Amino acid sequence: MKQVVLKNYMETLLLEKLDEVIDKLDCCKCEKCRMDILSYALNRLPPKYVATYEGQVYSKLDTLSLQYETDLMCALYQAAEVVREHPHHDLTSEEPK
Ligand SMILES: [Zn+2]
């Protein structure tokens, strides 16, 4: 039997736009910074949960309005700027204590 999982569609959308924004703002592309940008933006956007079968590729939601897209890009740019100014990746090769 297939598992039904909840997925935050907002996360999928942000992931699609993430690299574009990182390129434009010339941000660090390491995994930590990417995920920092993603979480920062996700925390500032309303979640958009959809129920889907596990592993199922679902098509884009048509209900997503233009306003959503604007808010999304706005949050993503803001997030990228914050992370660029205050990166949380390891700046030294020292072992964390
Ligand atoms: Zn980084």
Which class best fits the helix and strand makeup?
A: mainly alpha
Could you say which overall geometry the principal axes of the C-alpha atoms support?
globular
DSSP helical segment count? 3
Strands ordered across the widest β-sheet: 1-2
H-E string:
EHHEH
Radius of gyration: 16 Å
**Bound ligands:** zinc ion
- Termini separation (Å)? 46 Å
Uncertain segments of ≥5 residues (pLDDT<50)?
none
The percent range for strand residues is 5-15%
Number of strands: 2
Helix coverage percent of residues? 40-55%
Total number of domains: 1
Question: Biggest sheet, in brief?
Answer: 2 strands, antiparallel
Mean pLDDT: 86
Mind explaining what this structure looks like?
The chain has 97 residues and is mostly helical. It has one domain (4-85). Helices cover 53% and strands 10% of the residues. The chain has helices at 9-25, 31-44, 66-85, and strands at 4-8, 49-53. The termini are far apart. The site of zinc ion has 6 residues, from helix 2.
